[in-house]
Amino acid sequence: MKPLRIFRHVMCEPPGYLCTYLQRHDIDFEVICLDEGLPVPTDLNNVSGLIFMGGAGSVNEPKDWITQELALIRQADTQAIPMLGICFGAQLISKALGGSVCEGSELEIGWHNVQSVREVGHTATGTSTEKKAWLTGLPENFIAFQWHAHTLTVPPGATQLWRSDCCEQQGFAKDKVLGMQFHLEVNAESILDLTHRYASDLSRVTHCSQSVEQINENIQQRVDKLHDVADQIYHRWLSVAGIISLDTGNTEWLSK
């Protein structure tokens, strides 16, 4: 059984609940802690998929590890290897596959409603068939946790899946690749850590950037609901990727 390879960029944005989900379903994975100076492995023969977590800063910074990850994503795309990107990770995938990343008009921080983009219109890309394959059975709207200053564009050939009032681009898919601007993997402890480490981001409260008090209100209840959504979206990605069976929900490894 080939493991999923997870790239961690900063200690305070760990895989969190994603690891809990994978362990619960007996899916092997390994975590590459780039924040601890580990090199970016380029061998893709022994993985079933790649997962890129959140991080600080911009994917446009000329750092060696960012350049290496962008090259790895392009290589994986040519080999049709499944990929999942979360926040900074989704921005990496967007940039690597021909999209762009820039600073947003304002910070989006806290608990915000995310809406499915189910129809093809002037604000969306992709086809109704592609959207249906990804969104059928998933909630039309859900509350997700956000913490980002940058926004992405949907890369060529990909399909926009979600949006929010504060950020038009919340997620996209292309073949076996899924990028999400929002966080499903956080728990109460990691959210508390973020509010401590990046307290300066919370100095100005707006419609899109919540206060510490707003973020912490009913936090465990919110996290539990978030993880219910995570279960559905993680399962959908793993199913589209051919790693588990969509119909049964069992972890039948279809790609070895």
CATH architecture: 3-Layer(aba) Sandwich
Element-by-element helix/strand order: EHEEHEHEHEEEEHHH
CATH topological fold name: Rossmann fold
The CATH superfamily bears the name Class I glutamine amidotransferase (GATase) domain
Please provide the count of β strands. Answer: 9
Question: Regarding quaternary structure, how should these chains be classified?
Answer: single chain
Number of helical segments with 4 or more residues: 7
As residue ranges, the low-confidence spans are 248-256
Q: Which class do the helix and strand fractions yield?
A: alpha/beta
- Please report which band the strand proportion falls in: under 5%, 5-15%, 15-25%, 25-35%, 35-45% or over 45%: 15-25%
The gross shape turns out to be globular
> How are strands sequenced across the largest beta sheet?
2-1-3-4-9-8-7-5-6
Q: Main sheet?
A: 9 strands, mixed
- Span between N and C termini? 6 Å
Share in helix: 25-40%
Global Rg: 17 Å
> What count of structural domains?
1
Arithmetic mean pLDDT: 92
Describe this structure in words.
With 256 residues, this protein is of the alpha/beta class. The chain has one domain: Class I glutamine amidotransferase (GATase) domain (Rossmann fold), CATH 3.40.50. The protein contains 7 helices and 9 strands, in the order βαββαβαβαββββααα. A 9-stranded mixed β-sheet has the order 2-1-3-4-9-8-7-5-6. The longest helix has 22 residues.
